[in-house]
């Protein structure tokens, strides 16, 4: 099994943070807690309900190995469009995910360095041959609602940072 190291010791998410994840690793909360005295990290499992209640109320959204859980491209587009509605006009999106092509099966050990010298180890398994979670396919989807500010890819793990696009009214 291949392993990869992610250093989040100095990662800072602005303001109120929306953590979209199918598994709660506690990583986003740990990062936010170390840099803010008062934190608001909300976890979402039903984004439609969240959208009704909290439209344009978050400064940041973090998807830590969660976009890969969404099977179809259409569903990913819909999810990111909903996330965009939840973010304030200058809201940021942070994505960490695994690089996997159709028909591939992968297992990765991910070691995450957190603030306060803590380390969290997680295992990512993806065996669904129908899933495409490559950075290039994700960038295509992300760029519909977000301006891409930064990308990184190393050892089969990628990072994307985007900022909500400002809608032009006509």
Automatic annotation (TrEMBL):
Domain of life the protein comes from: Bacteria
Family matches, as InterPro entries: SAM-dependent_MTases_sf
Name recorded for this polypeptide: Class I SAM-dependent methyltransferase
Lineage: Bacteria, Bacillati, Bacillota, Clostridia, Eubacteriales
């Amino acid at each position: 099994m291949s392993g990869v190291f992610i250093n989040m010791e100095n990662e800072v998410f602005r303001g109120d943070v929306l953590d979209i994840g199918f598994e709660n690793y506690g990583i986003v909360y740990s990062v936010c807690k170390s840099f803010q005295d008062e934190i608001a990290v909300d976890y979402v499992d039903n984004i439609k309900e969240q959208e009704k209640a909290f439209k344009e109320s978050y400064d940041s959204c973090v998807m830590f190995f969660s976009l890969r859980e969404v099977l179809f491209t259409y569903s990913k587009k819909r999810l990111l469009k909903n996330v965009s509605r939840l973010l304030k006009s200058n809201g940021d999106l942070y994505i960490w995910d695994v690089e996997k092509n159709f028909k591939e099966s992968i297992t990765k050990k991910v070691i995450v360095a957190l603030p306060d010298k803590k380390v969290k180890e997680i295992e990512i398994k993806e065996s669904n041959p129908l899933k495409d979670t490559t950075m290039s396919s994700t960038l295509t989807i992300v760029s519909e609602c977000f301006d891409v500010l930064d990308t990184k890819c190393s050892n089969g793990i990628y990072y994307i940072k985007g900022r909500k696009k400002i809608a032009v009214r006509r």
